[in-house]
Model the fold of this input.
Amino acid sequence: MKTRIVIADDHVILRQGMSSFLAQERDMEVVGEASDGEEAVRLVNLFKPDVVLMDIVMPKLTGVEATKLIKNANPSICILILTAYSDTHYVLGLLEAGASGYLLKSARSEEIIRAIRAVKNGESVLDPVATRKLLERVIKLSRETPEDKVQGQLSPREIEVVRLAARGMSNRDIAEKLGLSMRTVKAHLSNIFNKMRCGSRTEAIVKGFREGYITLDDVPQGIESYKRDNTESAPELLSI
Done:
């Protein structure tokens, strides 16, 4: 089945250009285009896409506000932020709202396509340095609320998987590290997402941190340690 996509951006030329190159991919289908945050929420509720490409600054509802509403109603939908902003406040706000990852609008079309496939498959589209900053911010904020509680304890193997995911490792790298098949790793990630009631690695990492499954020691402090762990080429990420 094709990956169903909604594009939300107030710049019509950007939406049209993105829709055009995505339409050339056999495994992708753009099912809706939104010019503001309210329309993005409406189209997502109507079409139930797999992935939303979300701008940050839009009329009526911001990308952060729209992301929160979408994730509250549809936890399994992946939201990938395309932004021209490198401000930490914007990016961390979106990650906390449930976004799966983010890319600069200057990213090449093939990088965006690769990122869409990555988040659809439960892969990471997030610089682990930014992950660490996100977790450091979580420490400063209030701890878990009742609805954040994980429904069912993670198994020892699932804990291993989520810790390696926090290091920015791809499904393939995790499989090689643990001596598992790619299908088994995907199954573990699916179980983790179901137990944590989330739809992306970012959410799973944050909730795993709050539950004590992950510590800051599990997350690289610098990009070089990430590159040593993640042997596959990743999309160009926005570092904060």
